[in-house]
Amino acid sequence: MTETPPAPAPEVFAERRRRLLATLGADAAAFFPAAPAAVRSNDVEYPYRQDSDLLYLTGFAEPESAALFLPGSPEGEFHLFVRPRDPERETWTGRRAGLEGARERFRADVAHDIADLEPTVAKLAADRERFFAAVGRDPTADARTLRWLHQWRQARPRQGRGPAVLADPAGIVHEMRLYKDATEIDLMRASAAIARAAHGEALRRARPGMREFEIEALLDGAFRRHGASAPAYPSIVAAGANATILHYVDNAARLDAGDLLLIDAGAELSGYASDVTRTFPIGLRYSAPQRALYEIVLAAQKAAIAAVRPGATFDDPHRVALEILVAGLIDLGLVGGSVADAIEHGAYRPFYMHRTSHWLGLDVHDVGSYRSGDGARLLEPGMVLTIEPGLYVAADNGDADERFRGIGIRIEDDVLVTADGHEVLTAGIPKEVDEVE
Which residue among the candidates 316, 412, 413, 414 is catalytic per the annotation? Predict the structure, then answer.
């Protein structure tokens, strides 16, 4: 079993709230609602996952909840709205923290019944000038925010105050989330260790004749057995030509000897994701065409990882990987011309159609800007990003050499920017050709 660190302590969330309150300023209120529950079919819901911003600031994972922040308020700066205790409902759907738990376990200054949310927020935020709330994700929440704004606008001429500005809190909270603290880094290391164990099992146990969903089930079981709450995203288990479909999730095909198996799967631990891809032969050896493409991708990935350091830009790993991938495609005759011309005119795009990296954290494609001013953002310690180059030759690509058609390869690791370079959180999952074979 993988040893996992505990969930963040209450003091961790309190420090995040302190930073948020200090940034908001005394004339503002900030509102963070829970993610809505989603119906799968009829009266069956999808497993619930809390909104990442609310989870980051409070640690509160229950649905039908919300947080309101009022810097400097004598009534309390942190208000948490929750479902009250209800023994009958808890018999059906599980225990609730209730108002008392919101105060004692989650350190809310004031706890409210979620049923009183709309009038309570309207009253508490009525003397502020700016109201921070995300819009555009949930129509029900958007309508509620508009009702508040209308109410405050109507009262403003008589009272001389009230929120006149609606602002997006993402500019504050997402910048905070981009820089992982020590607690988050420990959790992400542990999530990566769980992914490492699961991928190792898949590599050892995959055999010709199995189905993709058998490998998916093996991954899911390993994630849970080692302490994760769930996969961080629907696992991609793609055999043969299915690996040329970037977000393939059917996971039903047969594994045939001689094909490659691409597995893109990560674990979620206390909300934090790992994101790992490996591509290996279903059988003992890579074929010559498979190995030729694989070694290009591996060289690109290793060079891109080496480019991760403080002061480099977010685009640097992609630029380094792209040059190696394109040079390899030219060497194999899949792309013509020079490297510079192929990049400028996009001749490589039929074979490499995505970027090399994205941020990683509470969301698999985590928050935070990739740009700063007119250029790419500089990498700084505490940032975590994926490095995931690939090459994909569609089975029906009539312009490609027939030997390479139907081969899809991606290699992905999770990389932490450190003070003096980087740390590969997912190191130890085999990817060298000799290791895999």
Answer: 412
Instruction: State how beta strands 276-281 and 260-265 pair.
Output: antiparallel
348 catalytic? Reply is no
Active site residue 79: no
Catalytic status, residue 365: yes
- pLDDT tens-digit map of 197-233: 999 999 999 999 999 999 999 999 999 999 999 999 9
Q: Per residue in 83-123, pLDDT tens?
A: 999 999 999 999 999 999 999 999 999 999 999 999 999 99
Is residue 2 over pLDDT 70? no
> What is this structure's pTM?
0.96
Residue located via tokens 């080496």 = 306
Active-site residue, 142 included: no
Annotation says 247 is catalytic: yes
Backbone dihedral region of 55: left (phi > 0), alpha (psi from -120 to 50 degrees) or beta?
Answer: alpha
Q: What are the C-alpha distances in Å from 427 to residues 191, 379, 412, 414? A: 12, 20, 10, 8
Identify whether 46 is a catalytic site residue. Answer: no
Dist. CA 73–CA 63, nearest whole Å: 26
112 is catalytic: no
pLDDT per residue as tens digits for the range 411-433: 999 999 999 999 999 999 999 99
Catalytic annotation, pick one of 3, 75, 247, 420: 247
